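Structure first, sequence second, as always.
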């Protein structure tokens, strides 16, 4: 419980400071969009590049573990799309952002510290692999859908070319792919480059959370609370239930990878969802609210998981 609150409370604190700064008008009305653009085009791509460039080839061998975690995520994502379209009547873009917000977890800033604290070094390695893998799965899918909705003039071939260009040159896709290619080359990042990426990439999380606080100024958090509640339920209950069923009932994973997969699925919504939403000007308010609500509720739900035998691998 202490490890969870020590990680969750600073997350709320950064959002709250951003909110206070926004209320005072210290950074101007466009500050949230400007800071979000910095995260989207600079800090987060650098973070993703470094994460992929530092992966050792031995770490990519956890196929059953990744199959359980990512497979559970795909199932939860598909169910969320159905829920968004049939129950809440969303169009394609909002439905995809609904599903992304209901399944894309805070694996980096919350999952990795928790895994190291609970499971030691091997748990941290599994979490790092899961974090990169789920980023490479979720972001390209979401970005592709959002790119296809941009207005475009010309024929089908021109439109397909424009979408492919938008996706492949998107920094959130290009950066991790470039990092993966670097890792395949077997070349270590030069020390100055690694230090640069580490310093700049570390700003992505705090800046994204601070930007959420700025955005929330004057916005009613209670708006759309029914949708937010549904996304939180999928993220914190349905997703981990599916992963737990796959890990323990189908794949028969060993206790440690099963526990890590379950923990990763049970994490709250990651701030990257807000970064995407604001960059594409869609589902912005809902994504910011679900991050706050799911993070708060996760203090209880993740603590309950740790209190059970499901995350007890000792």
């Amino acid at each position: 419980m202490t490890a969870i609150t020590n990680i969750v409370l600073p997350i709320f604190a950064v959002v709250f400071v951003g909110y206070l700064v926004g209320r005072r008008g210290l950074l101007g009305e466009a500050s949230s969009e400007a800071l979000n653009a910095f995260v989207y085009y600079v800090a987060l791509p650098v973070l993703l590049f470094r994460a992929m460039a530092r992966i050792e080839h031995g770490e990519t061998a956890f196929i059953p573990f990744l199959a359980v975690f990512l497979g559970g995520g795909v199932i939860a994502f598909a169910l969320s799309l159905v829920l968004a379209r049939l129950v809440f009547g969303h169009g394609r873009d909002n439905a995809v952002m609904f599903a992304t917000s209901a399944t894309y977890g805070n694996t980096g800033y919350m999952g990795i510290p928790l895994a190291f604290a609970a499971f030691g070094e091997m748990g941290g390695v599994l979490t790092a692999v899961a974090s990169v893998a789920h980023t490479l799965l979720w972001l390209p899918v979401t970005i592709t859908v959002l790119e296809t909705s941009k207005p475009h003039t010309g024929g089908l071939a021109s439109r397909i070319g424009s979408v492919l260009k938008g996706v492949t040159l998107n920094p959130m896709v290009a950066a991790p792919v470039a990092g993966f290619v670097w890792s395949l080359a077997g070349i270590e990042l030069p020390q100055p480059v690694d230090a640069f990426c580490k310093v700049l990439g570390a700003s992505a999380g705090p800046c994204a959370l601070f930007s959420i606080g700025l955005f929330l100024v004057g916005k009613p958090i209670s708006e759309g609370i029914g949708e937010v509640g549904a996304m939180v339920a999928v993220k914190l209950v349905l997703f981990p239930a599916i992963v737990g069923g796959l890990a323990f009932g189908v794949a028969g994973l060993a206790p440690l990878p099963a526990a890590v997969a379950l923990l990763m699925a049970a994490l709250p919504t990651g701030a990257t969802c807000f970064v995407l939403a604001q960059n594409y000007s869609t589902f912005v308010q809902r994504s910011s609210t679900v991050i706050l609500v799911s993070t708060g509720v996760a203090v209880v739900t993740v603590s309950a998981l740790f209190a059970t035998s499901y995350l007890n691998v000792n």
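Margin note: The longest helix spans residues 107-148.
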